[in-house]
Write a structure and sequence with these properties.
Blueprint lengths: L3 E3 L1 H7 L3 E4 L10 H10 L4 E7 L6 H6 L2 E13 L13 E2 L9 H12 L3 H4 L5 H17 L5 E5 L7 E9 L2 E9 L8 H15 L4 E7 L3 H9 L3 E12 L18
Parallel strand pairs: 2-3, 8-9
Antiparallel strand pairs: 1-2, 3-10, 4-9, 4-10, 5-6, 6-7, 7-8
Helix pairs in contact: 4-6
Amino acid sequence: MSYVSVLKWDSGFFGRVTARIRKGVVVTPANSRRIGDEIRRKRVAFLYYFQSVGHLDNLGLVLKMGLRPVDVTAVLRKELAADAPGAGPLEVRDILRGGPSVRLGALKDLARELSRESRFHADRELERSAAVRLYESWLDRAVSGTYADFFFVIGPSEAPKGFVVYRTTGAREVELSLLVVMKHARGRGLGRKMIEQSLGELRRRGFRRCLVRTQLRNTAALNAYEFCGFKFQEASFVFHGHYASRAASGPRALRSSRQT
């Protein structure tokens, strides 16, 4: 059984072997040594681990493996079939399906601001600029359709006020992966309008469910999603591990490259 999945794109971006402990795997005394062996065998230098907040008894073991908490995320879910169509004229447009293109530089300005709230910005092992570059790269891929399946923008093409990005995760399911509102346009309900109108469009295209992940500390986002009908589903700790390239035996020998 494999416990660790190497992430090709992330590895290329960070310039080191980057991986995650597979979804559904919980670190336990029974599997921690095998996980550690696989980390070394695959020469993993940067590791992600997501664990439900319902599991607390293994926290000491997780820390001994060199993993450090960087965030707590919440997953919310919304059933689209029960919604009535949104009122008012449609203001969002999908630039991946014939909508007017936008000035990428303007969108990158928004992405830079969003990156400051990310787990990568919170990770002291990474350069602060890495989170910005990561979000800029994600945005480039989203606009091209590589990272996103739907990219809705609101506001003029030369100076968009915000955007919302979705990926298809099932036959009738999407995940809201990026939502940004320009600072000067906040406080006017623009985020809720983008969510409601874009989900209305996706509902008309046959989708019936939407998931979204956000930081548990981001109360503004949680309130906006709940206002739009999303229901809390689960919360997870997010851990990052940084490992030196050296041989070692057992999970206890796996050390974070920085101990402060």
